[in-house]
Inverse folding.
């Protein structure tokens, strides 16, 4: 009875206490909608800084790659489409690096074009046997390379000067998503994550769905991945509305319960769910300064999390349509996201009249940085109950 009473306190009294707090965070202030958006599903967004200006790149299934010049001062945001390139087939991924745009897609190639060359035709710099759904430029590798991964299960590195890759790694399954932080690349398939050191080319594959001699943290296929900003691990999102947080130290040493040397245990938790409905995660993006991360879901919600303190920092208002992708700017002052149907529920739920939108939100420290809240007697009592029952107030569950 005592535990039930404490459970009641946490679920009812505390939620009532903090409801106004979360509602105040879930506002649409300081949000800007970009003009001239794509006409089909938006597949990828990315940022760069060119001549001191923020530049946003967008790839879409309408075969276009669009470049936006973004200016902002605090919450005042203005964006203009300055360039547009048309591909032969739908674009699945894109990125920017030092004034050069890269995009790849169903044409089984990756192309490159300089933003300073007005009217230039994009040049093919990478080739796969099947569509290329991941492309990133690694400027801090042993030598600057373009890294591509595709449905053919290959990861290839290109110097953009010769027709053959300088390195190649076999994933054994189609690539799902990829992230690169400095010289660390992580490529996810439906069940595995391969981590590559781009300086030494040493790589290690980790099976996250069916790990040997350990209980799984994830149960359904991986959908997206994002690296810790300090390169000590990564976060993956799955189609079952679940996030897994993994430290490389724990994965490599196989400590009990996947714990690191400083007792940081690998864990997973449920998210992007509404009652009994479960939605896929479409994107994970880390804030470049604070190390917190944002997730986008098919339920139309964007949520910011702190992995170290296992907390939800902020949740944006539901956008009314799936969020297909999102990305923080290089400074972390802006967050761009695409409100675009992801076809997760098939053509029956597609609403052409809603269209596809690119929105940019100003990011403040209060949104993206974890701040310790003062403890109250009620939260202390709930923490005591949690240690006895295994329940965590933040909604995080290890191995569940």
């Amino acid at each position: 009875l005592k535990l039930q009473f404490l459970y009641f306190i946490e679920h009812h009294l505390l939620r009532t206490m903090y409801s106004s707090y979360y509602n105040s965070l879930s506002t649409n202030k300081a949000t800007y909608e970009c003009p001239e958006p794509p006409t089909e599903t938006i597949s990828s967004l990315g940022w760069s800084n060119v001549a001191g200006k923020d530049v946003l790149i967008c790839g879409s299934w309408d075969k276009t790659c669009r470049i936006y010049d973004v200016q902002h001062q605090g919450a005042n945001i203005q964006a203009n489409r300055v360039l547009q390139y048309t591909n032969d087939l739908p674009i699945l991924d894109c990125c920017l690096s030092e004034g050069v745009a890269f995009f790849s897609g169903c044409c089984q190639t990756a192309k490159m074009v300089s933003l300073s060359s007005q009217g230039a035709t994009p040049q093919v710099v990478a080739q796969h046997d099947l569509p290329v759904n991941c492309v990133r430029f690694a400027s801090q590798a042993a030598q600057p390379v373009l890294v591509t991964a595709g449905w053919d299960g290959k990861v290839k590195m290109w110097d953009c000067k010769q027709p053959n890759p300088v390195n190649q790694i076999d994933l054994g399954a189609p690539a799902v998503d990829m992230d690169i932080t400095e010289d660390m690349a992580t490529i996810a398939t439906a069940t595995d994550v391969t981590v590559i050191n781009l300086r030494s080319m040493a790589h290690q594959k980790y099976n996250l769905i069916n790990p040997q001699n350990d209980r799984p943290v994830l149960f359904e296929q991986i959908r997206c991945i994002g690296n810790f900003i300090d390169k000590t691990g990564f976060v993956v999102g799955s189609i079952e509305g679940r996030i897994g947080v993994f430290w490389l130290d724990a994965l490599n040493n196989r400590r009990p319960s996947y714990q690191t040397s400083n007792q940081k245990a690998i864990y997973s938790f449920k998210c992007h769910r509404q009652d009994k409905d479960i939605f896929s995660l479409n994107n994970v993006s880390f804030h470049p300064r604070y190390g917190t991360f944002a997730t986008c879901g098919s339920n139309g919600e964007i949520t910011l999390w702190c992995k170290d303190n296992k907390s939800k920092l902020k949740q944006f208002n539901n956008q009314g349509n799936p969020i297909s992708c999102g990305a923080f700017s290089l400074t972390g002052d802006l967050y761009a996201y695409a409100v675009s149907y992801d076809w997760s529920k098939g053509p029956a739920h597609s609403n052409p009249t809603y269209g596809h939108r690119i929105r940019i939100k100003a990011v403040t420290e209060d949104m993206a940085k974890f701040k310790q809240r003062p403890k109250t007697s009620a939260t202390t009592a709930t923490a005591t109950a949690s240690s006895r029952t295994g329940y965590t107030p933040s909604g995080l569950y290890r191995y569940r």
Q: What stands out?
A: The helical segments are 2-25, 248-253, 365-368, 377-389. DSSP finds four helices and 31 strands in the chain. Residues 5-28, 379-400 have pLDDT under 50 and may be disordered. The first strand starts at residue 31 and ends at 33.
